[in-house]
Amino acid sequence: MTIRQIAINVPDRVLLAEKTDEASFAREVLMLAAVKLYELGRLSSGRAAELAGMVRVEFLLNLGRYRVFPLDAELRDLEKPRG
Known about the structure:
The model has no long low-confidence stretch (mean pLDDT 90). The longest helix has 18 residues, at 22-39. This protein is mainly α. The protein contains 5 helices and no strands.
């Protein structure tokens, strides 16, 4: 598996406002990105979990923290008309 590194610029004031360090903030940003991409249906739960750096079950269990229903994407697939 190839991993690419993407750098983002974060003003010191943001870290101060969040009362966090760079590593913790980076983990939270990855989790937020994974959750949002999953919520939008752009990533599967497995790929979103991979982005967040955790196993799928752990990712799904953490979705409640972000008020995202864990199986929303799967339910949307079931609701699609079959034709």
